[in-house]
Amino acid sequence: MSILFWESPFALPWENLTGFPVTSTIRAFDWGPMVCRRNVVVMKLPKFFRHLIGLLVLFPGLGLAIDHHQLGWETCASKRHFWGMQTNSGQLKGEVPPGNGRQYARDRVVDVRHVKIDFTPDFKRRSISGNVMIRFSPIAEAIDEISLDAVDLDIKKVESARKIKTWDNDDKKLLIVFSDKVKAGEVIEVSISYEAQPEDGLYFRTREMGYPKGDDHFWTQGEPEKHRYWFPGYDYPNERFTSEVICHVPEGMTFLSNGRLVNEETVEGVTTFHWKQEKEHVNYLISAVGGHLEKLEGRHGSLPLAFYTPPSEFAEARNSFRDTEKILSFLEKEIGVPFPWAKYYSVCVSDFVAGGMENTSITTLTTGTLFSSDTENLRSSFRLNAHEATHQWFGDLLTCKDWSQLWLNEGFATYFTHLYEEEKNGTDEMLYGLYRDAGGFGQQGRKAHRMARLQRPHGTI
Fold this sequence. Notes:
Layout: E1 2-4, H1 14-18, E2 24-27, E3 39-44, H2 49-58, H3 60-66, H4 77-83, E4 110-122, E5 127-138, E6 143-149, E7 154-160, E8 164-169, E9 173-182, E10 188-196, E11 202-205, E12 217-220, E13 241-250, E14 254-257, E15 260-267, E16 270-281, E17 288-291, E18 294-300, E19 303-309, H5 317-321, H6 324-335, E20 344-349, E21 356-357, E22 362-366, H7 382-391, H8 406-425, H9 427-455
Helix pairs in contact: 2-8, 3-4, 3-9, 6-7, 7-8, 8-9
C-alpha cells in the first residue's frame, strides 16, 4: 500500500524528512483524489508510521483551530477563516452545499504562468483601482474563451494582443471571449483594468474607523478563495504561477508582498513598491499589506528576516520576534530542506481573521499575539510563530490541490510545532501538547456529532 503526497514543483529529500527511503518519483495527471500535474512522491506505508502517527495525533489540530478560544497558534487562518465563510444558514457564501459525496478539484482549462497586480489603495474611500495582467496557455485543446473569478469588481477595460470579441462581467465571473481560438500551448496575456470597494479579501483599518492615529493600514486574506473580491484571477489552489505585486501608497507608508523587493521609488508624494515572487505559488498565498508600519530586522544566515507592526504596537514587537531565527534553524534541520523563499517576514495587523496566515515568504499575524515582558510567563508567540513558519514548507512549498487535503497542511504545521516545543521546553511539554490536542479533538468530535443530530429531520437516526 502506498501514499501519494500533494503537489510541489520542487524536489524534496523525502528520505531526510521521513527517515525512510522513497520508492519512486513519478509524474501523474490523474490518480484518485490526490492528482497533481508535477512530480509526486510515492512511499511505502509500513515505514511511514513515525510521521503517520504524528499526523493522526495532530489531525485534531484541524478541529481545535476552528475554536477561537484555543491558543493563538491554534487559530491558523487556514481552518478558522475557511469555516468562517459560512452564513447563518450554514452554507458557504455564494456556493452550493457540497453534500456528502466525493469532492474533486476544479478542472484546469488553461495553465496560468504569471500574474502581475498593479494597484492603488484609497484610504479615505476604502477602495482600490488597479490593473491585473494574466499570462496563460491552454492545456489540452484550443479555446476561444477564458473565465476568471471576479466578485463585485467594476471592470473598466479588458485588453490583449489577441483580438477580443467580447467580455462580460456578472459580478461573480469575468468571461473573456476571443475572436479566434488560442491553440494548446500558445502563451498569451490579458490585461484587466478595474476598480473595487472590497467587502472581503482586502480590509482597511484607518483613524476614521476608530483606530489609533498614525496606524492606518490595509491587509489581505486569500484563503480559501477571497482574493476574487479585490482582483480577478484563477482563485483555486490547484494552479501554481509566479507573481508580481506593485502598489502605490502615500509617501511615508510601507508596502509588503511576496518574494523580493525589486524597486522602491517616490515621485511627487507617492511611493511605489514593486515585489516579485520568482518561484511558483498558488493564488490564495498572494499577500498585500500596506500602510504605516514599523520594522524590526534580523537574519537567518543570508536570509532576510523582519517583523512589522502598526506603530502603536511596536514596543512589544521584539518579544514575539525573538524565536523566529531559532525556529527556522530547527525546521531546516528537522525537515532537511533549506528555507525555500527569498525572505521571511511577519507582519501584525489589526483585527486579523485568525491567529496567522502563511502567505508565501510573508506571514500575516494578529496583533493579539504581541505581549509585553511583564506577561511573558502568561503568554507567548512561539507556537504561532512555529506553526506559520512550518507552513512555508507544508502549505506553501507543498500545497493542497483542493480543500479536502487541507488537513495535510495543518497536520504537518501542528506536528512540527509540537516538535519545536520539545526542542525549546522539553519532551514533557511536547507530550502534554499532543495529549491536549487529542482531548480537544474528542471534544470537537462530540460537539459536531451533537450538532449533526440536531440538524437531522425529525424521525431520522
